[in-house]
Amino acid sequence: TRHLILVLGDQLSLTLTSLADADPARDVVLMAEVLQEATYVRHHKQKIAFIFSAMRHFADELRGKGFDVRYVTLDDPDNAGSLGAEVVRAVEALRPQAVIVTEAGEWRLMEEMRGWRQDFGLPVEIRPDDRFLCSHAEFRHWAAGRRELTMEFFYREMRRKTGLLMEGEQPAGGRWNFDAENRKPASPDLLRPKRRRIEPDAVTRAVLAMVEARFPDHIGRLDHFGFAVTRAEAEALQEAFLENHLSQFGATQDAMLASDPFLNHALLSFYINIGLLDPLAVCRAAERVWLEGRAPLNAVEGFIRQIIGWREYVRGVYWLKMPAYRDSNFLEASRALPAFFWTAQTDMACLSTVIGETIDHAYAHHIQRLMVTGNFALLAGLLPQAVHEWYLEVYADAYEWVELPNVIGMSLFADGGVLGSKPYAASGNYISKMSDYCRTCRYDVKVKTGEGACPFNTLYWDFLDRNGEKLAGNHRLAQPYATWRRMSEAQRQAYRQSAARFLARLDAGERV
Ligand code: FAD
Ligand code: DLZ
Ligand code: SF4
């Protein structure tokens, strides 16, 4: 064997740099299902099953192209338990001249890989991952010397670089960003096409049985499993989204409806993140829909911004700021996660709905992650690292490079403002305006304090009060702090006491 090429579970792309010069006659591809990767956090059952099944199908795809694939299943009696140990086993069996790998998406594994040359005593070539638009060097260059890393400016660079929605040097439609036309509240639409669930094939069914047997105590249920696990299936879902949902993407982006967990979201992050779909190709396809007049610019621009803007930007911030970023805790929050994060057993209808859907589908859409679970974690002062692990665990699209900045930065403001200029803190009024959750809730969103008050209301003001030293100087919070100061002392005291009572019950493990 000339090269041993290790392909990771989120590297299922034929264009991978590690495969670029691969010679099926002389090289062997190694793929391994290992306990270490499945349990460094206790991933949702559907997430593990999705990745293993997609890996098995990708191995078949490579074999179809003539590659010799050494595929190690989790239940292989010789399975060594970690990627490093599986490389060692393959090196001993095949005696390659070198190991080739594309860089890992997560810091944890990348650090380990950097030691492999030393550990294994043979050349280990780590190649860049060019499935992103913006390289590490390019992002560092963009960030250098800037006082603030404003996503919107980074996004414009990516628009210029790709030419997406550009008319020469000018943005299509004369503006870079059409969000002012997006973000309408929820209203049910019975005509919205239903989402297609991909029926598990024999390979997936075998994986589902194995995952149920091996990870019975991980969160989630498998009977709802309907993920695409091949490139062709993922492409079919992409087409269906572009056809049926993209035109309404902007309008319903921030809406939440108890009867519809998916609204007009893409449900494509899973496939983009493991390499079954190419982010730029998805954006070009979306642009085409606009050019053909089948979706308005506000929808298409908003969608493309999420991918070439936010997705690239959070990856840039991750590699710029790690490893210290992971431990950020600007607001010094320390509360443990309540048990209902794993059971959905809470009387707060918004949280029980979002967490229940997370258990069912290993998915929640952006505004649910940000303004329901994330907002609660922020207001209740939950420990950022515990919140981070939960998000990494429960969502099938979660890898640390994309999850951590969204959680630590965007949602919890634990980075003190690297990613956003103010915390996304909101009272119950926001959730009530954007969703229909409050209608069935035991709490009353209109009640501010005392018995039956919506916990988001009391926690919101208590959060501002509690963090006054750190946040009152933030000019984007000037208005709420002015409102707080204008309240009577009795009113402020009522907020503090209601919040303290709620948090005490939370800490005691009582049902809230
Ligand atoms: P859509 O809403 O339809 O958006 C289209 C695409 O844009 C997505 O597929 C995704 O590739 C990209 N995108 C949108 N928003 C973001 C964003 N903020 N950051 C990066 N990419 C984005 N996304 C992940 O892929 N993995 C995560 O682990 C993850 N954790 C998150 C945690 C929190 C607290 C928050 C607030 C957001 C998180 N996101 C994460 C971003 C976003 O919520 C998901 O990408 C999105 O919900 C995926 O569903 P979708 O494909 O239906 O996305
Ligand atoms: C997430 C994941 C899981 C659950 N299992 C595996 C696995 O068994 N083998 C593998 O190669 N990759 C797996 N992955 C994806 C890796 O964790 C991912 O490649 C790293 O976190 C780097 O992004
Ligand atoms: Fe959530 Fe408060 Fe509305 Fe209940 S009343 S659903 S707790 S925002």
From TrEMBL:
Single GO term (MF): lyase activity
Keyword Lyase applies: yes
Domain of life: Bacteria
Keywords: Lyase
Keyword Lyase on entry: yes
Pfam families given in the database record: DPRP (PF04244)
Protein name: Cryptochrome/photolyase family protein
